[in-house]
Specification:
Blueprint: H1 36-46, H2 49-64, H3 82-92, E1 97-102, H4 107-119, E2 123-128, H5 158-167, E3 172-176, H6 182-189, E4 194-198, H7 209-213, H8 227-230
Parallel strand pairs: 1-2, 1-3, 3-4
Helix pairs in contact: 2-3, 5-6
């Protein structure tokens, strides 16, 4: 049985891709031309009422982030922040109780978000990453693998965060700055659908795309093989 080539959409550079324009162009590795089975499976899921409704309102929310759409030819005019989007989408879905899973290092931002969500009529439940105060040694970390060597350091506990929000009956979760990997565990164990408001980036002020935008200048070193291991702490 011939295996379909792996999707490589990130390598596509055609100006009018076929996935976006009906009579568009497609590179030799085009995923759309190989996606019949995946699309059919997805459409079966969208046919489920709860999934279809979620997807429908997500698309409506996407369009509503732009104004003056009736003006032709249309030039994109975005007008809503992600915080506003989250609130509007949650209202569209008739969610009453929202969960906030946040990094303790962003508790100020989490408090601000909590106030905004409550002002918009939501009931908010929240859990910080250090909940439980469990020492990192439980995970098998050595002293040299901790941030504060020689001191007590509680582990990030995204599974417990998810469990707490599950128990509290959160209908929709919002992530605020969980670490790489910890966010993945939260997604895995959370029962309610989850969106990300803040993606942690300690260097760029939580704007990860900054490194991509400057990869041709200040962050050119990222093109160098092994760059992610050349600047580690010697203890690593």
């Amino acid at each position: 049985m011939k295996k379909s080539p792996a999707p490589q959409c990130a390598k596509c550079s055609v100006p009018d891709p076929i996935c976006y324009v009906p009579d568009g162009k497609a590179p030799s590795f085009c995923a759309t031309r190989q996606a019949d089975k995946a699309v059919a499976t997805a459409l079966q899921e969208y046919a489920r009422p709860e999934v279809g409704r979620f997807a429908k309102f997500a698309s409506i929310q996407e369009a509503e982030c732009y104004i003056n759409r009736h003006v032709k030819p249309y030039v994109l005019h975005p007008a809503k922040t992600r915080v506003q989007e989250v609130c509007e989408f949650a209202h569209k879905m008739n969610y009453k109780r929202l969960g906030v899973a946040f990094c303790l290092g962003l508790r100020h931002e989490a408090a601000l978000l909590n106030r905004i969500l409550e002002a918009q009529g939501f009931e908010v439940v929240s859990a910080c990453c250090k909940v439980g105060g469990t020492p990192k040694e439980i995970l098998g970390l050595s002293e040299e693998q901790k941030i504060n060597i020689g001191e007590f350091e509680s582990m990030c506990n995204p599974i417990a965060q998810a469990a707490l929000l599950n128990e509290a009956g959160s209908e929709f979760n919002i992530l605020v700055g969980l670490c790489v990997g910890h966010d993945s565990l939260f997604f895995k164990y959370a029962e309610a659908p989850t969106t990300v408001l803040v993606a942690k980036d300690r260097v760029t002020g939580h704007n990860p795309a900054a490194a991509l935008y400057t990869v041709g200048s200040y962050y050119a070193r990222m093109h160098r093989p092994g760059f992610d291991r050349t600047e580690q702490d010697p203890a690593e």
